[in-house]
Amino acid sequence: MSTAARFDEIVHAPNRLQVCAILSAVDSADFATMREALRVADSVLSKHIRVLHEAGYVDLHKATWAGRVRTSVSLTPAGRTAYAGHVAALQAIVSNEGLQPGAGLQAGQP
Amino acid sequence: MESHSGPGIGATGMETGEAATALAAIDASRSWLADRAIAPCWYHPAFGLFAGAVIAEAETRSVMLSAWSVAVYTIACGGLMWWNQQRVGVAVQYFDRRTRAVYAAHVLALTGLIAAACWLGLGREVPGAFLAAGILAVPLTVAFGRWTDRLLRVRLRAG
Prior knowledge:
A: alpha+beta; Arc Repressor Mutant, subunit A; three-stranded antiparallel β-sheet; 3 strands; disordered C terminus; B: 5 helices; elongated
């Protein structure tokens, strides 16, 4: 089943798009791994994760092991749908197909 | 936001080039992830040595020693997999249809090797049968392990 193309401005920000791209391929990823992937500071990544979390696109999990708190992030079903729709929208733009009627920019830009 | 239309501009007002750049960034992230998932060169040989040692150890014909070596093998394999997951920093569904098939083939191959060793070593009293099977298990495990890894990397890259 193909995903309906839907441009999502929350997902579209470059760092958040990278976060979603990585999370969509895995069950969850450590915060440290995400920071390494994006090559950004903790605060920058935290900000983007918070935006995705507030949109209901990611879940945060904290686990303590050997006295250290380890934070991992995973995409929610809503996040997977939004990401898949956004990728489909990008592909539609690239292939000059355009978007489905009514599938314009999603409101809720933080 | 205002929408535009025209050559190279989608319904969202985004230029084709910008969309292509975003798609390229997605590909780059996926490639980064797939590269990160590559296990160190010694990883699969370590599994091979564990498996080989357990099989070769049966040459001693000691049930107690065999039971201990299976327990140590299980803990060592579990520890190595846990360590690798910590290193990569992601939790991923390791098995899909293809990797499950490769894993099943690996288990079948090792089972066949052990069965042959049992037939030769226990049934026909051929000396060194388990030792030979243990030695053969090493490259077998390395080959199947790297095959599974390759499939996983392709899956991660494809998304």
